[in-house]
């Protein structure tokens, strides 16, 4: 049997180094905390609010339980026809992502090459707002997170400032919605594969007082980093499955 040539060995070595680099990048993204340090030990409080992180294989959303303050702060959702007075409304759900992929891929069958290629380059961003009813807290796609009142306020502000605005307020994208209970809006920033929807979710959770990994581009990376860095802190991911 003929042995491997020098070219074959170099090719194998190159592939091994590429895989090793990816593994190291992913590992460091999870293990290295962000922020790197805290001003002091957190003080536990019995007053907390549960928010939810909802995930599928590639994307995460944040669900905030509805109360009067939330409905006032996000009252502009009525302008695009969302029924904030629906008696079955329990959560407002927010996600951030690339315009092409997010708005054109309603289900996996809608997947096209163009939006995918844009997601690996640079795409304008959008915010997806959705009305949610009862969500089972023990579902595998749900992570329950406890935050205090200050963390909740910072989270709301972070989401509000993620909307791009005109003089009349947030800018909707009519006709891009998936159904009667959701809407898309122009968002701040640009989307790419390195800084995408899950890094936005991580940034939002850091505003709420959590520590995430340095770079969490996929939902499982974000969930692992939340478990790793928040077990003994004030804000604990109480239900986080792989």
Automatic annotation (TrEMBL):
The organism of origin for this protein: Rhizobium miluonense
Organismal lineage: Bacteria, Pseudomonadati, Pseudomonadota, Alphaproteobacteria, Hyphomicrobiales
Domain of life per record: Bacteria
Annotated keywords: Membrane, Transmembrane, Transmembrane helix
Regions crossing the membrane: 12-32
Record has Membrane as a keyword: yes
Protein name, entry field: Uncharacterized protein (TIGR02117 family)
